[in-house]
Amino acid sequence: MKTIKLFAAIACGLLAAPFLTAQQPAAKPAPKSPPAQATFSVDGKAITIDYSSPRVRGREGKIFGKDGLIATGDASTYPVWRAGANGATTFTTAIELKAGDTTIPAGKYTLWVDIGDADHWVLIINKQTGQWGRTYDKAQDLARIPMKMEKSKKLTENLTYTLEKERGGVELSLQWEFVEGSVQFAVK
C-alpha cells in the first residue's frame, strides 16, 4: 500500500510540473537602453552622471544629422538632444565646477547636447530636473559649454559617459557611434 501511495505522489508531481512552470511569469527582456552611470570622486565628493544608454544596433551612419534617428525621434527638441534615452540624463556634483568662465555650483542638473553642428557640439547644463527626456526648457539653462569633438574609426555600440581626472580637473566625455565629445571642468 505504501508503494502505491508513493507511486501516486510521484505521478501527480510529474503531471503537475508542466502546469506549475507554465504559470511562472516570463523573464522580462533586457531594456534596449539600460540604465548606466559614470562617477568620479574629488576629495571624497562625487560627480555622477545617471543616464539610459541606447545602442547603435546596426544603425551606423543613421544616428546623427538632420535626418538621423535623434532628429526624428527627438523632433520636438532637435537640435538639442537629451544625451541619452528614456528619462533626462542627470548630472549631480557635490563640488563647484568651472568650465571657462562658467561656474557650475554643487547641485543636481540635467545634461543636454546641442548637436546641430556636427563639428561643434555644445554641452547644456540645465537646472530643470526630474523630467522625461523630451521635456527641455531652454529658459532653465545654467550653462552652454562648447565641446571638443573627435571622430573615431572604431564603433562605440553603447552610449557611454566617462568622468576622468584631467589636468587638475575633471574631463566629462560621451562616446557613441563614431563620435566623441568632451568638456574640461576645473575643480573649485
If you had to describe this structure to a student in words, what would you say it looks like?
- With about 190 residues, the protein is mainly beta.
- It has one domain (about 30-185).
- The chain has two helices and eleven strands; from the N terminus they run H-E-E-H-E-E-E-E-E-E-E-E-E.
- The strands form two sheets. Strands 1, 2, 3, 4, 7, 8 and 9 form a seven-stranded antiparallel sheet that branches. It has a four-stranded antiparallel sheet with strand order 6-5-11-10, with no helix packed on it.
- A hairpin with a 2-residue loop joins strand 10 (about 150-165) and strand 11.
- The longest helix has 21 residues, at about 1-20.
- The radius of gyration is 24 Å and the shape is globular.
- It starts with a helix and ends with a strand.
- The mean pLDDT is about 90.
Number of domains: 1
Strand content: over 45%
Give start-end ranges of low-pLDDT stretches: none
Distance between the termini: 84 Å
Largest sheet: 7 strands, antiparallel
Order of helices and strands: HEEHEEEEEEEEE
By DSSP, the count of extended strands is 11
Q: Roughly how many Å is the radius of gyration?
A: 24 Å
Mean pLDDT: 88
Class derived from helix and strand content: mainly beta
Alpha plus pi helix count: 2
Overall 3D geometry? globular
Report helical residue fraction. 10-25%
